[in-house]
Design goal:
Helix content is about 30%, strand content about 20%. By secondary structure, it is of the alpha+beta class.
Length: about 240
């Protein structure tokens, strides 16, 4: 039998070698549990983008993989929060994942997990521990769109402490400088003054209603002016001479 040439052996070794990509990392998250979960993540993203429409120093997204391996390998150490916000970065929407070692070592400032029957235990225990001890994420919340269970934690001296709710049951996020609370069975943002942060659609509807109210007020003023002119004329007074 003819022995294999060194070139052939070298080519075989290269073929069998596992190569970890150093370029773009794609997100590798499973499908969402239900339409409720999808809508909840979507409203969190939409409303924050509306509230911060004049800002470009953050990145907010949902169901995207975070790669954080100290060995810079895609095959190890990754998690996919349902929703997270990173401050002090760019709003680059072309990111296919969040790769910590390609993002200056930045981890999320805020994470929200949307609980489901299949993920609740992991979200409450394993992920909470990772976000506390490895990510060092300052604010962590979870919300169940079915049962409306809602809890939040803030990092104090390296340990998550429960956030005390206000009278409305809302929880303050120091990182977002907004409250989080339940509104119409969804987790929503509220301003420090207690105003609901609208979605773009809600904001457009509010603007339409304001415009309609202004139109009605203008019409009422016009009618009152016409009635006054008619009354003056009935008294023999020319309104144009006043």
């Amino acid at each position: 039998m003819t022995p294999s040439s060194p070139l052939a052996i070298d080519q075989k070794d290269k073929k069998d070698e596992i190569i970890f990509p150093q370029g773009e990392f794609w997100s590798d998250e499973p499908p969402l549990e239900s339409n409720l979960h999808l809508r909840q993540i979507f409203i969190l993203i939409q409303c924050l983008e509306w509230a911060w429409k004049d800002r470009d120093d953050y990145f907010a997204t949902g169901n995207l993989t975070i790669y954080y391996s100290p060995n810079q390998k895609k095959s190890e150490d990754f998690r996919g929060p349902d929703f997270f916000v990173v401050l002090g970065t760019t709003r680059n929407q072309e990111r296919r994942s969040w790769v910590v070692w390609q993002e200056g070592g930045k981890y999320p400032n805020v994470i929200i997990e949307v609980l489901s029957d299949s993920t609740a235990k992991v979200d409450r225990e394993e992920k909470k521990q990772i976000y506390q001890d490895i990510f060092r994420t300052p604010d962590y919340f979870w919300f169940d769109p079915d049962s409306l269970e809602f809890q939040g934690f803030t990092l104090i001296s390296g340990v998550y402490q429960p956030i005390e709710p206000n009278q409305q049951g809302w929880l303050w996020s120091q990182q977002l400088e907004l409250y989080l609370g339940i509104h119409q069975r969804q987790l929503r943002y509220f301003t420090p003054d207690g105003e609901l942060v609208p979605s773009p659609e809600e904001a457009a509807e509010q603007e339409r209603q304001r415009a309609e109210q202004e139109r009605q007020r203008a019409e009422q003023e016009r009618q009152r002016a016409e009635q006054l002119e008619e009354r003056l004329r009935s008294l023999g007074i020319d309104p144009n001479e006043l």
